[in-house]
Design goal:
Strand content: under 5%
Order of helices and strands: HHHHHHHHHHHHHHHHHHHHHH
Number of strands: 0
Radius of gyration: 23 Å
Largest sheet: none
Oligomer: single chain
Helix content: over 70%
Distance between the termini: 40 Å
Number of helices: 22
Shape: globular
Structural class: mainly alpha
C-alpha cells in the first residue's frame, strides 16, 4: 500500500518504513545501481564530470509504480522511490568519484601495481564517508534543516509526482528552465541553489565565482591565474582550519541530563501542539553522538591508512617513524577533506573535491613526501568527500518526505528507521559500483579513458612544486579565509563558501546565483516568509532540470 501523504498528528496508526532489502525493492535498486555506475564511469572518463542521478532513479521508480500491477504498485510509495534514488546516486558517485578516480591516479603515474591497492583504500574511504555522514546527519554541525539542495530537488520531484497539481506544474516549469539553461551552457543548478540555501553563504559563493571569472579583466592581470598562484587553496586552508575549530566547539557542548530531559519534554509538547515549531526541525543527533561519529571516522581513516601502507609496500620503503607520520597525515587529510567537501556541498550543492585534494597534494610536496607515498596519499584523499556529500543529499530527500509525519507520536523512531533503510540502499549502490568498477576499469584505462583530474594529480606529483611562492601564498591567503570563516560562524560557512567559489570555474554562474538571490529577497519582501516554500520548489525544479539535461551528454 502506498504511504499516506497527509500529515499525521495524534493518530495511533503505526508508521512503518519500507525495507531496503525487500525483494522487489532490492531488485530495482540493484538494476538502478548498475545504470548509475555506468553513467558515472562514462561521464567521468569522457567529460571529466559527474552527475547527480537521484532524479532519474526517482522518475524510473515513479513510472514503475504507475504500472500498478503486482509488486510494481508498491513503488507508488514515495519512500520506496526515495530508496531507489538513494541507491542510484550512491552508485554513480561511488563508481566515478570515490573508486575509479583514485585507481586512475596510480595508472596515470605509471604504477599499475598500485591500482588494486588504491581500490582497496578507496573502498575504505567510501565506507567511512558514508558511515560518518549517516551517524552525524541531523546534528548541529550537519543539520537536516540545512540546504543540501540536490536533496530538496529529489524530494520535491517525488512529491510532485505523487501529488500532482500546482506543485507539479511549478516544479516542471523550473525543470524546463533548468534544462534549457544547461543546454545553452549555463548552470541551472546555480540559480536553483540560490533559491534554497543560506543567503549569506551563497552571496559569498557568488563573490568567489565572480572573482574567479573576471579577475583577468582588471588592468595588468590579463595572464593572472588564481589557481596558479594557489590563492583559492590558501583561502580554503584558512577557512577549513577555522571550520574544524568551530566543529570542535560544537563537539565540546556537553548538555546535562536535565537539559536533555527538557528537550525531550519540549519535543513531546511540540508534537502534540499543531501550532508549535515542527519537531522534525530539532536536532536528532546529540553533541555526544556527533563526537562519537566523527572520532570513529578518524580512527577508521587511520586504520585504512595503515592498511594502505602495508598493501602498497610503503612499510618496506620508509622507516617506522616515517610510516607513523605518513599514516597520521593521511588520516588527518582524509578526514579534513571529507568535512570541507561536505560543508561546501551542504550549502551550495557543489563539492570542490578536486581542489581540496590538490591542497593536500601541495602540502605533501611542501613537506617533502616521496612520490609513491604521495600518490597513495592523494588516492586515499580523493576517495573521501563525494560519498559523504551525496549521502547528505539523499538523507535530506528522505527527511523532507518523512517530515509529513513529524507530529506523529512514533515519528522519531520512524525517521531513524528511514535513515537506516536509506543507508542500506546506499550500501547496495556502493557494492554494485565496486563490482562494476572492478570488472571494467582495465578496459577504460587501456582505451585511454582516464578521469582528467587523475592525470592532473599524477602530472603534478611528477613535476613537483615548481613555484617558489606557492607556500608563501598559501600562508598569506589562509589569513583572510580564516577571518571570514570566523566572522560568518558555523551556520553560514562564509569562508568555505568563498573559497569554493574561487576554486570553481562555472561560466556566468555568479550572475545566476546573484540574480536568483535578488529575486528571492524581493519576492520574500513582497509576499513574506511563506513565499520561501514556492521559491524552494522553483529552485528544486531548476536543479532537477539541470541534472537531467547533463545526463543527456551520455548519449551525445
Amino acid at each position: 500500500m502506498a504511504e499516506r501523504t497527509t500529515p499525521s498528528t495524534t493518530t495511533e496508526e503505526r508508521l512503518v518504513h519500507p525495507r531496503a532489502f525487500a525483494p522487489a525493492t532490492l531488485i530495482l535498486t540493484v538494476l538502478l545501481s548498475v545504470l548509475g555506475a555506468y553513467i558515472g564511469l562514462h561521464l567521468i572518463t569522457t567529460l571529466g564530470i559527474s552527475a547527480n542521478t537521484s532524479v532519474v532513479g526517482a522518475l524510473i521508480a515513479m513510472v514503475i509504480g504507475r504500472i500498478g500491477i503486482g509488486f510494481f504498485g508498491k513503488f507508488r510509495d514515495t519512500n520506496r522511490q526515495n530508496l531507489a534514488q538513494t541507491a542510484i546516486s550512491s552508485a554513480t558517485f561511488g563508481a566515478a568519484n570515490a573508486l575509479l578516480t583514485p585507481m586512475a591516479i596510480g595508472w596515470a603515474y605509471g604504477r599499475i601495481d598500485l591500482v588494486w591497492p588504491l581500490l582497496i583504500g578507496a573502498v575504505v574511504g567510501l565506507g567511512v564517508d558514508s558511515w560518518v555522514l549517516y551517524r552525524s546527519f541531523g546534528s548541529r554541525f550537519l543539520p537536516a534543516t540545512a540546504a543540501w539542495p540536490p536533496g530538496i530537488a529529489a524530494a520535491e520531484t517525488i512529491k510532485a509526482g505523487d501529488k500532482g497539481g500546482k506543485r507539479a506544474a511549478v516544479l516542471a516549469g523550473g525543470g524546463v528552465v533548468g534544462a534549457v539553461l544547461a543546454w545553452v551552457g549555463l548552470s541551472g543548478s546555480a540559480a536553483g541553489v540560490a533559491l534554497i540555501g543560506n543567503v549569506v553563504a551563497l552571496f559569498m559563493f557568488a563573490i568567489g565565482l565572480a572573482v574567479n571569472q573576471f579577475i583577468t579583466l582588471l588592468p595588468g592581470l590579463a595572464d593572472f591565474s588564481l589557481s596558479g598562484q594557489f590563492i583559492p587553496h590558501g583561502v580554503m586552508i584558512g577557512a577549513g582550519i577555522v571550520a574544524l575549530i568551530q566543529a570542535g566547539v560544537l563537539l565540546s557542548n556537553r548538555r546535562s541530563k536535565a537539559q536533555r530531559a527538557g528537550d525531550d519534554t519540549a519535543a513531546q509538547a511540540a508534537a502534540a501542539d499543531p501550532t508549535a515549531a515542527d519537531p522534525a526541525d530539532a536536532d536528532s543527533v546529540t553533541p555526544g553522538q556527533l563526537r562519537r561519529a566523527l572520532s570513529s571516522g578518524v580512527v577508521m581513516f587511520l586504520a585504512g591508512a595503515v592498511l594502505l601502507a602495508i598493501i602498497t609496500g610503503l612499510v618496506t620503503e620508509m622507516s617506522i617513524p616515517a610510516i607513523i607520520g605518513w599514516a597520521l597525515f593521511a588520516a588527518f587529510a582524509a578526514f579534513v577533506h571529507e568535512i570541507i567537501v561536505g560543508l561546501a556541498a551542504m550549502h551550495s550543492g557543489w563539492f570542490p573535491a578536486f581542489a581540496v585534494t590538490l591542497i593536500f597534494l601541495v602540502i605533501g610536496l611542501v613537506v617533502g613526501l616521496p612520490e609513491v607515498p604521495l600518490v597513495v596519499l592523494v588516492g586515499y584523499c580523493a576517495a573521501t568527500g563525494p560519498a559523504f556529500a551525496d549521502m547528505g543529499y539523499d538523507l535530506k530527500a528522505g527527511w523532507v518526505l518523512r517530515k509529513v509525519h513529524s507530529r506523529h507520536p512514533q515519528y522519531d523512531a520512524y525517521e531513524r528507521d528511514g535513515r537506516r533503510q536509506q543507508y542500506y540502499s546506499a550500501i547496495v549502490g556502493f557494492v554494485v559500483a565496486l563490482v562494476v568498477v572492478a570488472l571494467l576499469w582495465r578496459s577504460y584505462f587501456e582505451d585511454g579513458l582516464i578521469p582528467p583530474v587523475a592525470v592532473v594529480y599524477a602530472d603534478t606529483i611528477t613535476a613537483g612544486l615548481t613555484d617558489p611562492d606557492a607556500v608563501r601564498n598559501l600562508v598569506i591567503w589562509a589569513i583572510p579565509g580564516a577571518l571570514i570563516q570566523a566572522i560568518g560562524g558555523p551556520k553560514r560557512q562564509m569562508g568555505v563558501m568563498l573559497a569554493t567559489g574561487l576554486l570553481l570555474s562555472v561560466p556566468w554562474a555568479c550572475f545566476l546565483v546573484a540574480g536568483a538571490l535578488a529575486v528571492r529577497l524581493v519576492v520574500r519582501h513582497v509576499k513574506g516568509p511563506k513565499a520561501e516554500e514556492e521559491l524552494s520548489l522553483v529552485g528544486a525544479g531548476l536543479i532537477a532540470g539541470d541534472a537531467l539535461a547533463s545526463l543527456g551528454r551520455v548519449f551525445r
